[in-house]
Amino acid sequence: MPRHSRCLAVLTALVSLAALDVSAQTLQDGPPPQHRFVYRNLMVARLNPLGLLDEARISYRYRLYRSESLALRDNFVSVGLAPALSPAFGRLGVVVELQPLSILQVWGMYEFIGNFGSFRQLQSFPSAHSNFSDTELNALDVLPSGDTRRPYSNMGSQLTLGATLQFKVGPVVARSLFRLVRPDMVLREGNRVFYDIYYDVLAPNQGWYFVNDADVLYQTGRGLTLGLRWASSHAFYGPSHFSPGESQANLNTTHRLGPVVAYTFAEQDGARFNSPTVLLMVNWWLAHRYRTGVDSSPFFPYLALGFSFSGDLMPVPSPAER
Predict the structure, then answer these.
(1) What residue stretch is flagged as signal peptide (predicted)?
(2) Is residue 2 predicted with pLDDT exceeding 60?
C-alpha cells in the first residue's frame, strides 16, 4: 500500500476516535475525479470514560481544481450527512467541508441530538463547579425513579466548527484537529451545564468549548503505524454557567498523552470497501479534575479500541479517464 494513502487511512481512524473529521479517500494514481460520493465508518469501544459508538459520514465531493502535486491534488468542497449511534444517544449531522489543499481542511457541522436517558446520559447540573466524577454519575444513576437528579432523556442540537492541518516528511506524519463546539440542549430547570460523554467534558449549555487532538506518527512501511497523541479540552464558561455568588474559576480543563498503534490491512484506490484499519490508543490523564487521583487512579489510562474503513459509493474512473 502507498505510504501516503495508508497515512491518511490511519489519520481518519485517529480523527474518528475524536470526531470523524478528516478525509481518507486520497487516490494514489492521479487527481481525484470531479465528482465523488464517499463514505467512512468507525466502530469504537472506550474505557475511562466508558463508551461504545458507531459513527459514519457520507459525502458528495466536488473537486475545486486539477493538480498533480501531492500537496494540492486532494482538494474539494463537500456536503454530507454524519450519523452516530451509541447505547446512550443518537446524532444526525449535516456537514460542509472545504479542503483547498491536501494538508488543510476547514469544516462545519450542525447536529440534532437525542439522549436516551440510559447509561448515565443525560445528566445536567446547576454549576460548572458541580461534581461530575464517575462515582457521582454512578450514584445519580441508581437514585429512585422520580428523583430529579437522575439521568433523563432529552433533545437538542450542536454546532461544531473545525480545522485540520496535517503534513508528512518522510515516514513521519504530524496532524492537529481543532474543534470549537456550541451545544444547545433542553435541560432541567435550574441546570446550566451537562456532562457530555462524547468529549468527556462538563459542557456549558448555549456556550462554547474547544477540543484539540494533536498526533505525531511514524510509518513502518508494512501497514503498521506507531504514534503519540496529545488531547486537550477547555470550556469557556460565562457567568450564566455558575450559581449566583460562586467563584467563576474554571476547574475543568483537561490534557492527556499517550501512544497510538494502528494497522491497516489493505488499500485499493476507489474501492467500495477500503483501508480497513484497527487502532489502539492508550493515553494517561495529565490534567483532569477527577481522573488524576481524586476519583480514579492517575495510573488508570484512557483506552480506546477502534475499527475503521472507508470507500467510494460509485465507480472511480481510471487515471486516463480522470
Answers:
(1) 1-24
(2) no
Q: Which residues pair with 62 in a beta bridge?
A: 35, 77
Per residue in 145-203, pLDDT (tens digit) is 888 888 999 999 999 999 999 988 889 999 999 999 999 999 999 999 999 999 999 99
C-alpha of 94 from chain center: 15
Q: What is the DSSP letter of 188?
A: P
Asked if 173 and 217 touch (Cβ cutoff 8 Å), the reply is yes
Name the DSSP letter for residue 317: P
Sign of CA pseudo-dihedral 105, 282, 225, 198: negative
3-state DSSP of 148-169: CCCCCCEEEEEEEEEEEEEEEE
Q: Cα-flanking dihedrals φ and ψ of residue 37, to 5°?
A: -115, 115
What is the edge-to-edge ordering of all strands in the sheet holding 124-125? 124-125, 193-196, 201-204
Please enumerate in sequence order all residues whose Cβ is within 8 A of that of 19, keeping only pairs 6 or more positions apart, or say none.
Answer: 160, 162, 177, 179, 211
CA–CA separation, 253 and 210 (whole Å) = 10
* CA pseudo-torsion sign 136, 280, 219, 71: negative
Full set of structural domains in the chain with CATH: 3-312 (2.40.160.40)
Task: State percent of the chain over pLDDT 90.
Answer: 70
Q: How many alpha carbons lie under 13 Å from residue 20 in its C-beta half-sphere?
A: 27
CB neighbour list of residue 12: distance below 8 Å, 6 or more residues apart: 20, 22, 23, 24, 40, 275, 277, 308, 310
Mean local confidence (pLDDT), 251-260: 97
- Is the pLDDT at 223 greater than 80, yes or no? yes
